[in-house]
Amino acid sequence: MGRYSPELSGKQERDHGIAIGDKMGIFRGVKRLVLFLPVIAVAVCFGLGFSSCTLTPPTFYVSNPTPKAAQWLKNCNRISWLPRQVSGRYDGASALDNLNHAAAGYAVKRSSYGTAPGGYVGLDHRMLWAICDLASRGYTFRVIAIAGGSHSRNSRHYDGLAFDVDTINGQRVSYGNRYWRGFLKRCRELGATETLGPGDRGHSTHIHAAWSK
Ligand SMILES: [Zn+2]
Asked: How far is it between the farthest Cα atoms of the chain?
């Protein structure tokens, strides 16, 4: 900014007349266009019902962030969602069921077996936007549980604050999988305060990321 001090620009205007003024006008126009390019791209993508899994900044959606994020996720083909529980049950509370209900603007179902409390809960938008972010960074993965399934007592899953993943970039999660550590690190950068994976009890074949209340 220092280069364009009032004195200097005044001198340039005098020396070069209208030409410089025109150039500055064009420059401002291009700058404005560049600023709005992401908005145009997103509008076009949504208009065509197409998603390249390129992240829309969540600040665009100050209202209804949970359904907006869930709708974005439904259009992203880098993520798959288990349509049943890991236990094999079909109880309307699978990861896919949770996603669909959240995208439609509803609270999502919890399971009613094991330690699961049953009933319904809203999904946390920070968690959903983190999943969007991971996909937009190029990860492909499978989500096997959000609010459904039976977890440890008082698990954050039951509060709609946690998700589990068992496959990343085509590889099942295991100690030797080279992606899960980076995946969980990104979750922590995005606000997750509880991250578990191989080496943690009960997490040898899946990772878990949860946000605080
Ligand atoms: Zn979990």
From this structure: 81
Q: Using the mean position of ligand 1's atoms as its centre, give its distance from the Cα of residue 194 in Å.
A: 9
Helix or strand or coil: residue 193? Answer: coil
From ligand 1's centre to the CA of 30, what distance in Å? 47
CB 132 within 8 Å of CB 187: no
State the pTM of this model: 0.75
Q: Which residue has the tokens 């492909």?
A: 140
pLDDT in tens, 52-81: 687 755 555 678 899 999 999 999 999 999
Q: Could you state, in order of their start, the residue ranges of all structural domains in the chain?
A: 2-47, 63-210
Distance CA 147, CA 163 (A): 8
Ligand 1 center from residue 49 Cα (angstroms)? 31
Best CA proximity match to 78, nearest among 139, 128, 126, 137: 139
Taking the centre of ligand 1 as the mean of its atom positions, its distance from the CA of residue 58, in whole angstroms, is: 24
Query: Domain 63-210 class?
Result: alpha beta
Distance separating alpha carbons of residues 159 and 124, to the nearest angstrom? 8
